[in-house]
Amino acid sequence: MAEEENQFEECEQIDFLKDRHVRFFQRTLQVLPERYASLETTRLTILFFALSGLDVLDALDVVDSDVLIEWIYSQQVLPTQDKSNLNRCGFRGSSHIGIPYSTKGPGVLHPYDSGHVAMTYTGLCSLLILGDDLSRVNKEAVLAGLKVLQLEDGSFYAVPEGSENDIRFIYCAASICYMLDDWSGMDIQKAIEYIRGSLSYDNAFGQGAGKECHGGWTYCAIASLCLMGRLEEALSQRELNRIRRWCIMRQQSGFQGRPNKPVDTCYSFWVGATLELLDAFQFTNFEKNRSFILSTQDRLVGGFAKWPDSHPDPLHAYLGLCGLSLIGEPDLRKVHPALNITQRAFQHLQQLQQTWRGNGGSCIGQQDDLQH
Amino acid sequence: QHGRVKVKTTAQQEEEKRKEREKKLQIYVAARDACFTKRKDGVFDDEALQLTQQLLSSNPDFATLWNYRREILLHLETVRNQDEVQKIYEAELSFLESCLKVNPKSYGSWHHRGWVSARLPRPDWARELSLCDRCLSLDDRNFHCWDYRRMVVKMSGVPVKQELDFTDRLIGSNFSNYSSWHYRSTLLPLLHPQAPDTPSQCGNPPPSASPQTHFHRVCEEQLLKEYELVQNAFFTDPNDQSAWFYYRWLLGRAERDEMISCVYVSREEERVAVAFSRPVNAQSVGLLLILDGQPQRVEWQSVHPHFKNSPVWICSLPPGTISDVANEHNLTVHWTEKHSHRDCALYTGRSESWCRDTATDLELFRSELSVEKTSVLQSELQSVRQLQELEPLNKWCLLTIILLMRALDPLGYEKETLAHFQTLKDVDSMRSAYYSDLCSKFMIENTILKMEYAEVRVFSISDRKLTTLCHLDQLLLVTHINLSSNQLQQLPPQFAMLQCLEVRIGTLFFLLFFINLNSEISTLADLQPLASCPKLKRLDLRGNPITQTTNAEAELAGLLPSVTDLLL
């Protein structure tokens, strides 16, 4: 009884402030505070958070799609006349290297310019969200640039000159191939082996073999396998059940990323979407999840933070919304759990893929497998 | 993006801060541009090192700069002697230490340190380990540091035993040390591997590496020591999950071999159904049907056309092949990819036949935990029960007891298991839906075991608060099913795996196959899977909300035309 009364009292404090969030993302698209300077190299990902966030809020009408589409295409690393840089193609994070602005080919040869796998992924997503038809994406170049990033062990670098390599970039690669409907950009079998090798003793995924498991990497693993259509081939029923269990145990109020760590808004999506893909999200407690996410809502500037009483940021603002969307918060668009864009944007992709294939052939489903 | 706590400041303080930031920004931009110009011009000098150092100190995630720095260092390797190079790299390590102090979670910094350590002419691995020790003492969950430590250990050949002792120390001083337990799980099988098993029946190559395969298991002697260590941990702090997860892993067991679990043949329908131990795509795994020594060209179909992977597949034989009841036939189904096969003989006078490994034989539902060590499991159960008396509300205890009981005697402990589940749902109510699902699964498993024991083909489980249906691939041969008085809201598409749920006419015994559902079926869509059960004749939907919908009878007749006996 007492609990019910409390809920009525708290009702005012935990309402969802849609307009604030729209404005938060609008500001994100205009100017970012100085403390974000270190993210300059990954600016395209921030654009993605804002755009996809607005899409989830059904508020894309506030953006100038054409301008943004042009900017995204200006980050495409295009092949030079002689195609000597084909292995370096893709999308870059921003103009920080200093390449002159251009949305058309041929590309300009610059020794330190290359695509970055996460920027290519978020770039393509952003274009889809804005309704672009990807006709100006040089698919051959993007896939060539992707292929060289894969190592012998199946994982991916982020950039051709090398970086750390792990499961996050496998997810980016799988998403890219899925969106372009062309898996020549990666060796699926090797990627699956790397993913399997990352399965930890306690039944979730680490960044790589022998590494501690984590909600974010687990999302990358499961989402990648789903996009590849290999979930049930790669993992046995027992393993899948155990992964479900590990994920379900991450809920404390919201979700934590690892055992004995504090809950953090973004895991409401990383772990929540993983459970959704594993057909087990209905076993979580929606109310407690919602309460936690909303406790990190910034009532003044909008957006969400990782913890209550912290500064909001675009990543947590976006993933907080996705977390709410998963539990069916009214007025929010549904999110495709594997691709991490709205179902609306996903349908746009499906239509594009149908026209690419030239006929009304069926598209790759998300869950092809009959589970026990 | 790190959580930053809000701090209130006065307007003046704000202005001062703004000016300071402005100045910093200008310096930053100038340095950055100078850097890029140098790099573009191919200049690899000390000034370049200085500039990149300046920038990386404030932004260690500027990956391009780390790459440039690596280029500079590589260049310097070619123009300086070994002692100088050693000094340069040592200075690099010091620089990195200061970067890591500011941001101990920067991918760029750790990655670069790894690169430097690998190139140092005379590496000082002890120093690197000591850095890790210090870093971990500040944050024992910093996975960057743990990963770096693993790299150092690998490159320097630190003995596994030494690292195991390291985890001993960490765990000994603080049981709640999830990352240490994790590290331990990777070290233990290296130091104390289980003796290789005798080759499996199928001669499969091991599945790709993961701690779940038997190649990563630990020998018995060491396992017993580990049980003791872990018990100390969870007795000391029963609420910390680290030890419980580790314990679960210790008790675990390797996956069983993949195989064909059942072949069923119906003479009348001239149909073969095959059940596999896991979902497969029959079109791509080399499935071969041999009838009386002759390979048959058949088209394999998944029981539900929507799914390309399924544990049950069916095919039709050419008409007249096996229809004559006077003939005996021998079938073999080959799963060529796994070098596995199963035979099935269809005898004279018999209208159907099957060959199956029962769930009982396969210890299918006991395979969560290791079964060969019954005595060990008994003693573990005793220990955990002791703890449960002290901590009656501890969910880990309850869960572990349930699992141990299922490993020892699923049917014998059924009543206690149900009671524990009820307690579990009370103490961990946030996950009560999950526990209901788990409990449903165990009750279904028990019903299957009882069904096999009684050697009948009737699957009856009513009034058990079932929230979900599973293991439907084990019900391929079932003819009767009773799911009344449960909490099922819909029938899953997997229901189509019940290929024998049908009426056969023209036999001596008129067997009535029916479904009795008193649950919460409310829409037509909920019953969709029944459309795939070819000759369902009788359907009892009394007590379900769907009976209240207008036009229910007509709509159901449309969906299930073969049902002649519809009770609403």
UniProtKB/TrEMBL annotation, chain A:
Subunit architecture: Heterodimer of FNTA and PGGT1B. PGGT1B mediates interaction with substrate peptides.
Record keywords: Magnesium, Metal-binding, Prenyltransferase, Repeat, Transferase, Zinc
Pfam families xrefs: Prenyltrans
Species of provenance: Cyprinodon variegatus (Sheepshead minnow)
Catalysis: reaction(s): geranylgeranyl diphosphate + L-cysteinyl-[protein] = S-geranylgeranyl-L-cysteinyl-[protein] + diphosphate
GO molecular function, one term: metal ion binding
EC number, as in UniProt: 2.5.1.59
Cofactors, names only: Zn(2+); Mg(2+)
Gene3D superfamilies with a match to the protein in the record: 1.50.10.20
CDD domains associated with the record: GGTase-I
Name of the protein in its database record: Geranylgeranyl transferase type-1 subunit beta
Cellular component terms per the entry's GO annotation: CAAX-protein geranylgeranyltransferase complex
Domain Prenyltransferase alpha-alpha toroid stretches: 16-341
From TrEMBL, chain B:
PROSITE patterns: PFTA
GO BP term, pick one: prenylation
One term under GO cellular component: Rab-protein geranylgeranyltransferase complex
SUPFAM superfamilies: Outer arm dynein light chain 1 (SSF52075), Protein prenylyltransferase (SSF48439), Rab geranylgeranyltransferase alpha-subunit, insert domain (SSF49594)
Keywords: Leucine-rich repeat, Phosphoprotein, Prenyltransferase, Repeat, Transferase
Catalyzed reactions: geranylgeranyl diphosphate + L-cysteinyl-[protein] = S-geranylgeranyl-L-cysteinyl-[protein] + diphosphate
Protein name: Geranylgeranyl transferase type-2 subunit alpha
Organism of origin: Cyprinodon variegatus
Taxonomic lineage of the native organism: Eukaryota, Metazoa, Chordata, Craniata, Vertebrata
